[in-house]
Structure formats: structure tokens, C-alpha cells
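Worked Example 4.2. Consider the chain below.
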Amino acid sequence: MRAIAHAARQRRAPAPPPWHRNMLSKARQRWAVGIAITGLVAASVIVWKLTAPTYSTDIGRQTVAELPDGTRVRLNTDTALKVRFDNGLRRVELLRGQAFFDVAHDHAHPFVVVAGDTEVRALGTRFDVRRADGGAKVVLAEGKVAVTERGSRSAAWTLEPGQTLTTGRRNVAPAPVPTDLAVATGWTEGRVSFRATPLEDAVDEINRYSRDKVILSADVPAHTRVNGDFAIGKPMEFVTAMTTLYGLKADRRLGGDIELKAPEG
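Applying the procedure from the previous section yields the following C-alpha cells:
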């Protein structure tokens, strides 16, 4: 019995035929590739969730970003936004600034922009959102959007093309109003436009695009109405127009700012 057992241990199992070895090798390769692909997909999902893309611009700069779903976003000066696509929802958080959204059509996955307490929900449309004064200003260029505000008594507002809605203003109930799209979205073409705009508001808008600020002296009528189109990032173009049209005096300060003063005498 001992001798038989020893002989059995010494006897080697017959090698599988070549065709069988090839089949086993290919099966192992397919299995390995499948595991690798599964791992890469899982890893990419985890990385996407942990590192949601953030897009931003500096003062006076603009950029265009294309999101994973094909949506194109133009970021205005000093703007930052965070993108997260998860659980069937395409969500963009506007952290600061202003952005124009050209949303890719995908009815199965709603597209939502959150700006503070304001939420804008759209399905294939073009609209502008700007964070300001604790709320947001929404301008609809094409399509349809529903706007909600956390804590508001109204459930939602539905905007039609050519309408704007401003939230976050104290003691003022938000309501859609008609807007001049050429003026409201002129920044996407490199200009700021004013139509009977108070001078102080025009100065604030010009200052968004430059580190050198325009300052109104206390003796300048701040409510003077301004009309005109001005190139973004060129404050001297605006200053020259104000001194020419209204006889104001411009003084350059040490830090580079420009002060507009009333004419002497």
C-alpha cells in the first residue's frame, strides 16, 4: 500500500492539450480585461464625486467651459461655479459672479443652477444667472425655466424668453419683468450697455471688469442717466465719455483708481 501511494504521488497529471491551454489563456485575459474596465469605471465615478469640477475667472477675464453633458457655459468676470452630475441630476452651483448657460437637451436629467437661496431649473434652454445682493438675477434668452427661492412664499416663477427675475431683494416681491436681451447679455459679446442707467449703477458695472476703479466724488450727481455701449475692461473709454458728455473732471489717484469730479465753478 505504501509503495502504491508513493508511485501515485510520483506520477504527474497529463498536460492539457494545446487547444485547451489556449482557451484557458484567452478566458483569463477576458476576465482580467473585464475586471480592469469595471475597476476603471468605478474609480472614475468615485473620483468624479470627490472632485467635482470647479471653473473660475479672474477680474476682467471671461472663459467658456463645456460640461460633460455638452452644455456650454460662459463665465463672466470674477466668477466661480462648481459642477456635480449625480443621481440623474445635472447640478451647477454658482459660487460667485455671472454665467450664461447654453444647456444641452436631456429631458431625463434636469439641469439645475443654484445661486445662494435661488434655484433655476431648465430642460434645454439658454439663460443668464448673476449672483447679487444675497439673491440672483435670472435672464431667460430662450426656452423656459422655473425659478424658486428658499424661504419665499411663492412656490415658483416660470420665465418666458425676454423676461428677467431678481430675487433676494428685501421688501420687494420677485416678479418676472420684460428685459432688453441685447443689454442684459451684452457682456457675452464683450460690452456693457446702459439705457437710462443711473451713473452710480453704471460705475459699479464698469468696475466689475477692472482692478483700477472709477470713483464718483460726492459732488457728482449720482442719479444722472447714462446711455451707451462700452468695451469691457477699458474703464478709460467710459471715463472719457463721462467727461465729454457731462463736463466731469477725471483725476488719477496714486493706486491707479480714477476719480470723477464735478466741473469747477
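The chain has three domains: 13-50, 54-179, 190-261. The first helix runs from residue 2 to 10. Compare this with Example 4.1 before moving on.
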